[in-house]
Design a protein that fits this description.
This protein is mainly alpha-helical and about 160 residues long. It folds into two domains: about 40 residues, no CATH class; about 110 residues, no CATH class. It is built from six helices and three strands. The chain has a three-stranded antiparallel β-sheet, with helices on both faces. β1 and β2 form a beta hairpin. α2 packs across α5. The longest helix is centred in the C-terminal third of the chain and has 30 residues. The N and C termini lie far apart (about 40 Å). The model has no long low-confidence stretch (mean pLDDT about 85).
């Protein structure tokens, strides 16, 4: 049986974290048809959306990872306010306004004492970052196996893309 090409499209919503106010239950929903039902069933206050990263977002996360590697602080998960600031607004529907002192104070408070929903959101984001990190490492392994001439040509193309880009 042949696979349908449509099955390979990136799904915008990766999962929902739902805090059911009636039962007090915390649910993680990942199946697309269940996500669509839950979006109709629950209120926005009960739902936290976690999105699959776009190619542009993956590039931004890769840039963050590269920066941390250069600083000799390899991040394979969300640690501290730096990664939260960059990844949470990018991949969730959680709003963070870094121009407001109130939001910065609140972020610090939440990091120190998060609720169950926030913990689950961070765990899911860690999975996304770990996957991006593993793909980045695999790319480096492939580059290390290539002849120097090809690696140098790729580096030159990358530099010209950055200059022209």
């Amino acid at each position: 049986m042949a696979k349908n090409l449509k099955d390979y499209r990136r799904k915008e919503i990766r999962c929902l974290m739902i805090e059911d106010f009636e039962t007090g239950e915390l649910k993680k929903i990942t199946k697309q048809e269940d996500i669509e039902k839950a979006l109709l069933q629950y209120t926005d206050n009960e739902i936290t959306k976690i999105y699959n990263p776009t190619q542009e977002q993956i590039k931004k996360i890769n840039d963050l990872i590269e920066r941390k590697v250069e600083e000799e602080k390899i991040y394979s998960k969300i640690e501290g306010i730096d990664m939260l600031i960059n990844v949470i607004p990018m991949l969730t529907d959680i709003e963070i306004d870094l121009d407001k002192e109130e939001d910065i104070a609140l972020i610090n408070e939440i990091i120190e004492d998060p609720n169950d929903v926030f913990n689950e959101v961070v765990l899911e984001l860690n999975k996304i970052i770990m996957n991006i990190n593993l793909n980045w490492i695999e790319g480096l392994k492939i580059l290390n196996k290539l002849p120097d001439e090809i690696v140098n040509a790729l580096a030159e193309n990358s530099k010209s893309d950055e200059i022209n880009g």
